[in-house]
Amino acid sequence: MEIKIANKEIGDSSPVFIIAELSANHGQQLNVALDTVKAARDTGADAIKLQHYLPDTITLNCDNQYFQIKQGTIWDGTTLHKLYQEAYMPWEWTEAIMKTAEECGLICFSSPFDSTAVDLLETFDVPAYKIASFEINDIPLIKLVASKGKPVIISTGIATLADIELAVKTCRDAGNNQIALLKCTSAYPALPEEMNLRTIPNLKETFNVVTGLSDHTLGIGVPVASVALGAKIIEKHFILDKSLGGPDASFSLNPVQFTEMVNAVREVEKALGTVNYDLSAKSIKNKEFSRSLFIVKDVKEGELVSKENVKSIRPGFGMHTKHYETVLGMRFRKDLSKGTPLSFDQLS
After folding, report:
1. Crossing angle of helices 255-272 and 221-228, rounded to 10°
2. Same domain assignment for residues 145 and 17
3. 3-state class (DSSP) for residue 340
4. 59 lies in a domain?
5. What are 182's strand-pairing partners?
6. Per-residue pLDDT reduced to its tens digit, 78-126
7. CA 10, CA 7: separation in Å to the nearest integer?
8. Is 308 in contact with 270 (CB distance < 8 Å)?
9. Residue range of the domain that includes 186
10. pLDDT < 50: residue spans in the chain
11. Residue ranges of the AFP-like domain (predicted)?
């Protein structure tokens, strides 16, 4: 299975597609957002992702018990509307951010959170859409996004298997099979023991889609490890400087950390290679340091081969060690000195 986002093929034979998530890491300042895009380019990321919602399109300005955040998160003590008022990206920035991303050679797309966001993003002809974890049960939104005929990346942070099945079916029923599923744990930050990365290959096998990881752990170890399990997309929150603060700062990577992650991912990609038992030229040469049978003390013609005068030692210029039991008790045909590689033509 493969999908294509702008000029990037994403699939088994392609490099991992690495997304820097801007999210709320702009501090409501356009210059910070634009500088973050430029910094993302310098890390080696493939894409910058935005989020398109307004406080009033994602929730209600209401402070009754249903809208208070008290789920044991880093945002407890406020309301949904107040949180999103702090976190949202002004939509009038969209053109400037997308233009800067294009100038930087970055793919830019977004997570829409309602139909008005989709309508806006369509005016910019975004190359893909992302469905956030908490929107996986918004079937009308998924149906609308899928109908645009562009790749749909879906995070599974709060999803049961049935939720994922319905979301995938909704895309396919809309005639869109360009689907990627991201393993995600919707905890902020997430603990490594909560990640269950082995789900990634199971998602691929179960749904026949491109798979990846949307990661909220604090470091880079988890996303790097996911590559070895088949992740072809990695999404990670990115911040210019953690001193900016904001709702997502604590679990975002700064430019140095993000660069380290990108470099580590690329190193793992090289290391994975293919199933291959052939030795490289260097390994063949180094095989000379392996063990073989050597004469380890001076011997006379007719003397018996014994454990005292023949041993398995390094280097590897002598007889293969598999013949050790066979040669014990044979006789030397001539005088030989210590340090001579053993061979059958020396024995009788």
Report:
1. 20
2. yes
3. coil
4. no
5. 155, 212
6. 889 998 888 899 999 999 999 999 999 999 999 999 999 999 999 999 9
7. 10
8. no
9. 11-53+88-272
10. none
11. 292-348
